[in-house]
Amino acid sequence: MKVIAVIGCGRISTKHFPALQVNENVRIKYACDIIIEKAEKAKEKYSKIENVISDYNIALNDSEVDAVYVLTPNFKHYTITMAALKAGKHVFCEKPITVNYELSLEMAKEAEKQNKMLCIGVVNRFNKAIETLRDMVKDGKFGNIYHVYCSFRSCRCIPGLGGAFTNKAESGGGVLIDWGVHFFDLVYYVLGGFKIKNITSNAYSEMAKDMKSYVYKKGTMWAEDTSDIENGVNDVDDFISGYIRTDKGSISFNGAWAQNIEDNEMFIDFLGDKGGARLSYGGNFTFFDGATITSSASDISFEPVTEFKIPDMFLQENNGFIDSITTGEKARNHIEYVLESAKLLDGLYKSSELDKEISF
Ligand SMILES: NC(=O)c1ccc[n+]([C@@H]2O[C@H](COP(=O)([O-])OP(=O)(O)OC[C@H]3O[C@@H](n4cnc5c(N)ncnc54)[C@H](O)[C@@H]3O)[C@@H](O)[C@H]2O)c1
Fold this sequence. Notes:
Helix content is about 30%, strand content about 25%. The protein is an alpha/beta fold.
């Protein structure tokens, strides 16, 4: 039996609590939020939660707690994760690792020093379709993958304008660090890793320069409860475009939290000389090799059926973490395997700031 504390009871906790609730090897000793009502609300819904607290140190000082979940805004990932590791706890930390590569590296080193697991919430690695795609790449079905194109573009849906998501000091960046992190992590994982040679990018913060006059499509401003257009800050990228050369081929991409194009375009194209595939983000893919078209099974399954209906990949991600702290075997989302894509995000921001290509 593993004893868990969950720190941060906001939106993403609604994916982790149900998975922990149905795992027979888990006790949820604490739900913690600085807004205690949020932790109390979680307790009402998930019967396994034993206590609600607003100070995470109570959980860190409890010798019974084996592991903590860090589900807070990005800039708090570093402080809370470091404190938890030093207190001898395993940690599951949501993506992005933190606001930059340098601090991410420190977190990885601390986990190693304390001999504790530190897993990152790159949940798409647990999508069954991704595993199939990865196997097809390994089996040579694509031949030489010479280029990958990523599109993570949506129309006028900047999250929580003026709040933690759009304040660089708190988030580390905008659409690149929030959505791009998943896309580049997937490319890295599916290709079986790569070494970055050089990168170039341009990031823009154009669509909500005047926060008060920004118009979003009804129902599309998620994280609206964190928005603060009166006194808040918006200094992050709402559009970014770039090009990356690696030892395995090149990657080009466009990402938009907001754009004056209505369609959402969320996909990754893997272009090989024998075959290619378009992966719909969060779902399945279609593979084409000139003669045959193969579609992967959809991962939008909710099995095993639980009363809470969460996507299977979140269930697998949580079960994988509990297994890894039980067996001592690193899960596929261990920080060691996620660092290279954090380095990439950092480099892309740097290239845009300096307005030039960055070499590694
Ligand atoms: N894996 C995914 O697909 C995915 C999806 C959404 C969000 N996320 C990540 O999850 C994290 C949280 O995002 P969210 O959308 O749930 O945000 P949110 O604002 O809804 O929730 C964050 C919660 O943390 C609480 N909090 C802040 N500081 C705290 C502290 N010191 N102690 C305890 N609680 C504290 C806040 O009060 C809030 O309730 C972000 O890093 C985000 O990038 C990941």
